[in-house]
Every structure is written in C-alpha cells, then in structure tokens.
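Sample intake sheet
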Amino acid sequence: MDITLGLELAAVSALAAILGSMLGLGGGVFLVPIFTLFFGIDPKIAVGASAVVVVTNSVVGSTVHLRNQFTNLRLAMLLQVTMAVGALAGALYGVTARPATVYVVFGLVLLYAAISMGIPRSNAVARVGPDPLDLGAQFDDSAAKSTTAYVPRKVPVGMGISVGAGVLSGMLGVGGGVVMVPVMNQLMGVPVKAAVGTSAFMVGITSVATASVFYANGKVDPAVVVPAVLGVFLGGQVGARLTKKLKAQRLSLLFAIVLLYLGVRMVLQGLGISVPWLGIA
C-alpha cells in the first residue's frame, strides 16, 4: 500500500475513534462511509476493517470509561447476550450481501443516527426506586460537578432492541452503539455518559463476532486494517478522556449534520443515483 494512503487512513481512523469514543458509537459509523465514499475501498473490506477497529477502539476507550465509572458492567453483560446473537446472524448475511444493499442499509442507519443525535439526550433519571435486577449504578460527573445515580428501566424492551442492534453491528461493522446509546438514554433512562461508557464496552465484544466471520471469509485486508488500528489506538484514548471533560451533547448537532450528509450519500450511492454536488457521479 502507498505510504501516503496508509497515513491518510490512520488519520481518518484516529478522528473516527475520537468521535466514536465520545459518543459510544464505536467509530465504525464514521469509518465505513469515509473509507468507501472517499477512498474507494470495497464496502465489505471496509466493514471487516471497521469491525476490527471497533474492537480496538472499545479496548482502548473502555479502560478510561471504566476508570471514570461510566461503564455499567452488569447492564452491559445483560444486553450483550441478545446483542451477540444478532451480531452473528447479521455478519453471516453481511459477508454475502450485495454491495448496493450494504450502501443503502448503512445509509439508513446513518440517517437514523443523525436524527437520534439531533434529539436532546436526557440526564433526568429516576434516582430512587425498585432495582430487582441489581442494575443501579452511579458515577461522579466532573463536568457537572455532581454525582449521578440511576436505575435502568424497561430492561426487557432494551434486550429485545439489542437483537436488532446486533444484526446491524454484524452486517455493517458498526458495533451497535449507534442504536444502543439512544435506546439506553432515551428509553431506559441511563444518563448519557453512562450510556456512552456502557456502549463502548459492549461494542467491542459484539464486534469480535463480526470480525471473526469477515476474517473467515477473506474480508479483512491487513493493508487497510493495520493503519486503521494504529489511528484508533491513539484516537480512542483521546475521545474517552474528552467524554469526561466535555458536555458531549453540545457536539450532537455537528455530528448529526455529518452523519446526515454521509447517510444521504450512502443511500444515493447504493441506489445508483447521480448527484454531482454531493460528489456522486
């Protein structure tokens, strides 16, 4: 591979990892469309690389999230059971799917993510109440200078949705955080930083299944994966630390605009629609 291209892939991956760690999305939401739309990489190779990258980003970012007590391990392992099953099913389909299908589905996921990012995330959670599953937790929020306690609600519904998140993760290599962060925050009443930290832990485990399937089918290209992993190793740590210091919801509008643009481009690319001013010939 050309050294310049390798450096460009590493730089893009670092940026994707920073954004992914801050938002619990795993980085693949940004990485796959950028690799395919701007670097011309085959969608399945991009998805395979993204799955490996999401694992790396999760390992690097989760250590910081765990230290900051943002990760609810009991909740993560519970949701992970159903999410992993969905991921295996999604990966087995995604590795044989038509590239156009991958473009369209990924584009629709990005549009969903853009909409969910544009909805203000809630930190108003029930601080007292029954906790039959012992999933309650708390963390010190240095940005807000307070301690936040919460008890996740509607857990069975969250587990059901996590199956679909796993399917998308397996098919698209995005880790599933694009679905689970808003679900945990808006539906289950988990504060945004805890949702991000918990999702960052979950997406790594889920993406191991995805990466294994794509690797077994020859869709993991070291020439793409190596620079991407190097970039993620640096970016993941930066993003996780920024989560503690910044109010991530202030960045939601900017990220929503970026995701909206990438989503529209992916859908149009998959449908074969030419829009020159969007860069689609």
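Comment: The chain has one domain: 3-278. The mean pLDDT is 81.
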